[in-house]
């Protein structure tokens, strides 16, 4: 007996109603997005960061070289700091990242 599968099916682009399917799809696609960001970073030599929130409101992130350094560079528009100013910039960056995390959480909770 030969089983024939339906193969890859096109998924309609709307929010899934089945919670189990939604969670499985989120996990698989999140990993796929992170993999693509990693490949882009490796192949093109770019810095990349991705932050996503699960249906359960849990945050997931990927960054190369790190989420914090990419977010800091985005916020300041600066290139990586020189060694002489690294401590001062690191303290400032840590505060910025804490503020961004807080703001992202608030935006997500409010919606």
TrEMBL record:
Location of the MADS-box domain: 6-66
Sorted UniProt keywords: DNA-binding, Nucleus, Transcription, Transcription regulation
PROSITE patterns: MADS_BOX_2
GO biological process, one term: positive regulation of transcription by RNA polymerase II
Heme in keyword set: no
GO MF terms, alphabetically ordered: DNA-binding transcription factor activity, RNA polymerase II-specific; protein dimerization activity; RNA polymerase II cis-regulatory region sequence-specific DNA binding
GO cellular component: nucleus
Subcellular localization: Nucleus
PANTHER family reported in the protein's UniProt record: AGAMOUS-LIKE 50-RELATED, MADS BOX PROTEIN
Protein name (Swiss-Prot/TrEMBL): Agamous-like MADS-box protein AGL62
Organism of this sequence: Tripterygium wilfordii (Thunder God vine)
